[in-house]
């Protein structure tokens, strides 16, 4: 049916490529492009010979002109951005210049600040509308599936949703003392930033990892969870009716947090450039270079993830509680696509988001977050493409 240009060749991109190749009715031809072409070629070598035709290209996605040339040459129907959040705007600019739809999994961030907000990308709304093209923002798991879960609950079960807790648990073990499950630089920037949540329309800020609770997750058991700032809070608070409070929680082990504290204490997680042997380096980027590559964790990781949303609200005047979640097994993911579950749970929804736009189900001129579209075809696709979800109307709540 169409052609997709996939930018990035890391952990998440690898899953997107595998899933596009499984879905060759929609993705007839793909082009994988990143700065290091050999990574793209290695992915192509794994999957060549199937129904989806694969090309590769070298591109620096910080360079809009180079992107425009590549888009004009390959002529994709959609660009799937699974490079880094720093490239979101240059890629959106290239899509505007060429009239091609856009999908990503993480909001734009400038290199020198870690703010996690949609302002920059929402500023493109009018330009995408005028160009008649769609930008779908945050089509990973969180953001992504979590937004679709909320839209589904709003559509089918609630008149108003008052409280949402998004719970992201990873009970996987890769055997390393310290490693991150996706790009270490992006991951550590997120965790070491101040926490925050939205209550009665206002952001409430906390110190990093200040609020901790314990939750007993279906299928993975009891875990420590910490309140984090997360980008989908901003869009869901606007797009879901009746929100009084919305929070985001993630699990971390004692071991992980102890390592992180030490690295923070010695300045290794800083994004302020320092002078080292006559060169400017960013300590966090250096740390990234010495940590295990997330793409290499696949064969070592055992255990499961559980990511979902607990919601409380009203239907026909009656109070209602609802929990919807996906459980994903690291080893099963590795067997299927050669990646661990964090890459898998991000890459599958990125492919599905692109499919929604390409098949016209979510095609509308402008810039949108996932919860602004009809959740039903996406929820159906999650079940079909490897991320089945479960629901409960009597979950344990997070006490205040
Ligand atoms: P990786 O670091 O594994 O991969 C990033 C890829 O981007 C690399 O292949 C890199 O290749 C490429 N890249 C970086 N800079 C450029 C550039 N200037 N031009 C072209 N390519 C570039 O990251 P992940 O795969 O773990 O993460 C990918 C994205 O997914 C990130 O934005 C992350 O925030 C997001 N994510 C979203 C989640 C969600 O649930 N929504 C969860 C997890 C991740 P090279 O260096 O060769 O160019």
Task: Tell me what the structure shows.
- The strands form 3 sheets. Strands 7, 8, 9, 10, 11, 12, 15, 16 and 18 form a 9-stranded mixed sheet that branches. A 7-stranded parallel sheet has the order 3-2-1-4-5-6-17, with helices on both faces. The protein has a two-stranded antiparallel ribbon with strand order 13-14.
- The protein is α/β, with parallel strands linked by helices.
- The N and C termini lie far apart (49 Å).
- It has a domain of 186 residues: Dihydrodipicolinate Reductase, domain 2 (2-Layer Sandwich).
- The longest helix has 18 residues.
- The protein is globular, with a radius of gyration of 20 Å.
- The chain contains 14 helices and 18 strands.
- The mean pLDDT is 95.
- Pfam families: Sacchrp_dh_C, Sacchrp_dh_NADP.
SSE inventory with pairings:
Blueprint lengths: L1 E6 L3 H12 L4 E8 L2 H11 L5 E6 L5 H11 L3 E4 L6 H11 L2 E4 L14 H4 L2 H7 L2 E4 L7 H12 L3 E11 L13 H9 L2 E5 L2 E5 L5 E6 L3 E8 L3 H8 L5 E7 L2 H12 L8 E3 L2 E3 L1 H8 L13 E12 L2 E12 H8 L3 H18 L7 E4 L6 H9 L4 E4 L8
Parallel strand pairs: 1-2, 1-4, 2-3, 4-5, 5-6, 6-17, 7-12
Antiparallel strand pairs: 7-15, 8-9, 8-12, 10-11, 11-12, 13-14, 15-16, 16-18
The chain binds NADPH dihydro-nicotinamide-adenine-dinucleotide phosphate.
